[in-house]
Amino acid sequence: MYRRTQNETFLGYKIVDLPNTHSQDLWVPLEDWEMAMMRALQNGYEKGQPAVEEHDEEQEDEGEPKDTDQVPGAAGEKEGDETEAQDDTVKPESAAGEEEDDEVKAQDDTDKPPSTNEGGWSRFIGLRQAVSHPLNLEKFLREKNREKDIRLATERLKEEAESIQNDADESNAHTEQMAQDKVGRERFSVGAHQIETLYKDWIGGAEEMAKLRTLAANEHEVRGVTCGFCKKKKPPVDPTRGANVRVNFDSVASTANEQQCKHIFCETCLIVGVSKGSRSVKIEFTCPVPGCSATLGVGESLITPACIKESLKNAKELKPFKEPGRDSIGTQWSGDRDGCTSFFLATCGREDIDYGPVKMPWGSKVKATMEVILTWVKEAPDDKIIVFVEFTRTAKALGCILEKMGIGFLYYNRMASSSQKDKALHEFRENPRQKILMASMKCGGQALDLPVANRVIIVDLWYNKTTEEQAFKRVHRLGQKKETHLVRILARGSIDERLYMLQNAKQAIVNRAMQDDGHLIEFSDGQSLRWLFSGENEEGMRQGLEAEVRRKKDKMKAKTKAKTKKKKA
């Protein structure tokens, strides 16, 4: 077997004469608050806490795990296309019991128990989602004690940063790496400048993410609480904390006997009760919870995800609510069956939902993606762009931003039904005003002919470059008249670094195999996951892959020999 590529020549002529290609890996640093959440997730996997619910996605030709559109901590995201309507979740164990849609199971590694693959797979998907966009982590953040986990991760990150500063060699290497990455981003300074000058006030960061995490913390605090007044609502409606009121500051005994009350009630029940205690006939209003005699006033409201949804429901009755993130033909994602969309609703921009509103955190990868898009739109306004995004919430986040900027785009992923996908392709091919197609690698990475576009962004990396190359070949193919451009977005200090090394190591082995004996070597899920989290550098991965190839060849020879011997017998 001899492998031909588009760069091959015959008698001095290219076999496929296409315009030049320009590719770049754009490395971006994660913000401290992103790193903290990613570390908290990582620590959870190491403790064996989070689990994953798998979905069907493209099955790699080399026996790789299927790609997914999962979200850590998000339950199944129901899509219009029945053949692709799948759950979209990475969930901790406490969220077990969710439905599992039909799926193509990844191959088991015969050398390891299935449970080993499942744990590694969960970890792999979760860490990819964590760096893709922060709102992928909604359900994970709504699990108990996550705020504590994030605080611990933040403290550890500070210690690591101090350690790097104290180590001269490590500090210099870190500084040099950051400088190199910064040079790479200068190519897209036009888009970066637009974001800093025109859209800076749109971008949420650590403060906004903290507010969203507070929603989750409040949800846990009111869970299982019954209003002490009406004795019916569990949890209380519009939960509000009782505030202590000091009645007699002159009485030492009164102050000493005063209890601290943090009980939670329905807002209406508490207000009605307090108002009764403030009439002309003086009545001392005490906490109705047995064993508590604190004098109460109306304290702080505890806004929860349920409050956001209820408030938005009431707001819809006053003013029609348009789900943010719709594409140019009306395709949208409105949430999953478990309703883990409160973070998106809280950042929707509606002033009448009694919460903020909070600016949506962009995250480093999405921000870098927008820098590339805005630069290309400015420099080459007639060129069309395909953005490959693997996770529904990341795609929706990008959709919300593009919609708010007034930039038309089309979804070609699980958000869209079959008819919507057909319409999106038709619009993208035929309508000169439609410049951006947002696709997943499963839906848009194979069997499509799209030379109408000549620019590609890959937001989420995969196990090997073969899948990504296939995605890029949607535009770099016969019929392409323009030079093509490919940008991959990678996050420093994340799973992307390990994926990058694994891709390169596997590519080297496959290339050698094709040249030597024509075999395309298979690496199973478990093998890839073990190398991914092994701590080996790229050279170590390559050596491990080579050893695995030799082991498989020896095993095949032994089987063949045994069969031959059996036949002779």
Distance between the termini: 35 Å
Strand content bin: 5-15%
What is the CATH H-level superfamily of the largest domain?
A: P-loop containing nucleotide triphosphate hydrolases
Number of strands: 13
What is the mean pLDDT?
Answer: 78
CATH-defined topology of the largest domain? Rossmann fold
Overall number of domains: 2
Low-confidence stretches: 51-116, 247-258
Please identify the structural class as seen in this structure.
alpha/beta
The top level CATH class name of the largest domain = Alpha Beta
Give the strand order of the largest sheet, numbering strands 1, 2, ... along the chain. Answer: 3-13-12-9-11-10
* Helical proportion, percent range: 40-55%
